[in-house]
Amino acid sequence: MKKKILIVEDYLNIVEILTMRLEALGYDVVVAYDGHEGLQKARTLTPDLIILDVLLPKMNGFKVSRLLKFDSKFQDIPIIMLTSRESQHHRELGMEMGADEYVYKSDQKGTLLRLVNKYLKPVTN
What we know:
Elements: E1 4-8, H1 12-24, E2 28-32, H2 35-45, E3 49-52, H3 61-69, E4 79-83, H4 88-96, E5 101-104, H5 111-119
Parallel strand pairs: 1-2, 1-3, 3-4, 4-5
Helix pairs in contact: 2-3
């Protein structure tokens, strides 16, 4: 069975690129475009991993992460924050809110996909 990844991101180009790359690796991808929708989908679909933007409409990624990680039903779902907030303060805040990893959108070294594969073994067809 394919592993399910929830992408919570409001920037359509990033959603499209990530979806294409992750599906090519054999993952099932679900998308939410704001924090509230992301929280609801995380709670109803229980994905295997969440890629979470910080700056989101309706509810920021820090709050989404905190609400999930401080709930015993969802605390074991890995959360990778993917953000343009490139400061040590924001990285520390993300980790305090329960993120397992904190990756900058400007990182062009394939860090995000390596981290996804670290937490989930890719499924090949």
